[in-house]
């Protein structure tokens, strides 16, 4: 046992003096978590809540523009800047340059044509060309915006115009009912839709409620998903300094010296694992502190593990051991530091990509979704999601942790078998 | 009581996968205690394999190896305890100081407390590194590193010391210091097994040498007796006579 602690102490001492290694182990993951969360929070806001600026050109000059502006104002996420029709070219150029997200043009006669289309008889409607002749609002998007955001904004505009159309239809219905009453000989002057009791027709009554967000203690947002995901990514990057350290020992002859000493390979490997397990725990703690204390300062939601601190500790230990095992295996398999750094980092990025760290697994093609179950990062991430987002118990997340531990055992056995010096 | 030999190798065979001939072909060797024994041979003769098997870095396919009466194949840990091994490479941590390197390897050998401190001071003095003990090894010259490499092999006070070409690539002063210190160790009763390509060095230092080639021992004895037996002028001539002059790559 003393020998294991001796090896661990030496590893920590060497790490303390390797400023590059410390940078890779602590600073880089912390910055990565911060940047990625900020970026993704912004992307999520872009597709959901963030204020988007839209240039609006009203060539119609009727009442429809006001209805549209009222409807889009209800959404609250789109800021409309109205430009006069003679600046249409300028507006399109500004959107193309990325100064504005989109430009909406209401062509001349749109309102009148909508009114007219409401009076079409069923025979008129059968004549498709007459129905299709209606002028439609036109939108131009900044070519650089993401398709998801484009679809989101298009949906909001569509919804606003659905309200405009509905308002117009209700107005038409009011007039139509009035004229019908007069036709029946009932003396009536024009009745507004309020008088006719139709005003509630223009209100959206069916609203989908996010039940999960209401009952969960912790909001399953970008922070709760991103911090553990990128913390796992950082933990797995410890394979680089660990694999590199073992490789240097093999290349310098230190490992050969070890083999001539009355010390078991198990003690040597266990000492390294112990040192890097502590490093990984410290690394996660640093990331946790950033997530829980620093994120709120930046206006992000705080990262919280208060719902399942013990479970989180189990997962971090499992992931750290898996990373240590993989690092040691790389250290005995690779023959140069370039191999360790290239193969190590690329394999981790691939495992992260297919494991759902960068893009959620459900958003991947089916083949990749099947492959994701082979990624240790996916095991860790699934376990984190189980306890931090799905509010499941220690029992529920044990599958992921057990897989990580099994992966660690396989790597260690292979590393141990292959660690004999080449003669 | 029977005086145990430091090393007894009997009928040791070692083959590597993919190689037709075995690296060691039934080698037998007996090294008495308290001498400086030279293991000489051209490249690929089996020197490194012999050293690796004697130090427990690898296992033999057949045959037995006894270190001070302890059989390597049965109790490797006990057999390794009295061994010190100094690899040809500088097997040290560059980012640690000389003292930290000695302390780390000493602890791995189970030393602690006052005993460890004494051994560290002895090794630093032995290698002439007391003044630079607390500086990182990365700042040492080639000769200093090689001396520290040797000192680490001595940290636990071994009874048998294996040296794999300890004087390769160092200046004359460091080489002379190492020679003097090795002689000093032999005088203290330590057995030293030494491989080298420098025949003159072996002739000067070793009380017995074994010339090996193709995994077999061709001749064993004191340099003087081998020179006389083969009617040569020096050990190098004797070496060429036994192993030939063709290149071994």
Question: How would you sum up this structure, described in words?
Answer:
The complex is a heterodimer of chains A (423) and B (249). Chain A is mostly helical. Chain A has 2 domains: 2-44 and 219-418, no CATH class; 51-207, 3-Layer(aba) Sandwich (D-Maltodextrin-Binding Protein, domain 2). Chain A has 18 helices and 4 strands. Chain A has helices at residues 2-17, 19-47, 64-75, 88-96, 110-118, 122-126, 128-132, 147-183, 211-215, 222-236, 239-252, 254-259, 265-294, 309-333, 337-355, 366-371, 376-388, 394-418, and strands at residues 52-58, 78-83, 102-106, 138-141. The radius of gyration of chain A is 31 Å and the shape is elongated. The model of chain A has no long low-confidence stretch (mean pLDDT 81). Chain B has 2 domains: 1-82 and 159-249, Rossmann fold, CATH 3.40.50.300; 92-158, no CATH class. Chain B has helices spanning 47-55, 76-80, 98-108, 113-126, 142-154, 172-187, 199-205, 223-229, 235-243; strands at 7-14, 24-31, 36-40, 62-67, 70-71, 83-86, 160-164, 191-195, 208-213, 216-221. A 6-stranded mixed sheet of chain B has the order 6-7-8-3-9-10, with helices on both faces. The longest helix of chain B is centred in the C-terminal third of the chain and has 16 residues, at 172-187. Chain B is globular. The interface between A and B is medium-sized, with 25 and 36 residues.
Secondary structure elements and pairings:
The complex is a heterodimer of chains A (423) and B (249).
Chain A: H1 2-17, H2 19-47, E1 52-58, H3 64-75, E2 78-83, H4 88-96, E3 102-106, H5 110-118, H6 122-126, H7 128-132, E4 138-141, H8 147-183, H9 211-215, H10 222-236, H11 239-252, H12 254-259, H13 265-294, H14 309-333, H15 337-355, H16 366-371, H17 376-388, H18 394-418
Parallel strand pairs in A: 1-2, 1-3
Antiparallel strand pairs in A: 3-4
Helix pairs in contact in A: 1-13, 2-10, 2-13, 3-8, 10-13, 10-17, 11-14, 11-15, 13-14, 14-17, 14-18, 15-17, 17-18
Chain B: E1 7-14, E2 24-31, E3 36-40, H1 47-55, E4 62-67, E5 70-71, H2 76-80, E6 83-86, H3 98-108, H4 113-126, H5 142-154, E7 160-164, H6 172-187, E8 191-195, H7 199-205, E9 208-213, E10 216-221, H8 223-229, H9 235-243
Parallel strand pairs in B: 3-8, 3-9, 6-7, 7-8
Antiparallel strand pairs in B: 1-2, 1-4, 4-5, 9-10
Helix pairs in contact in B: 3-4
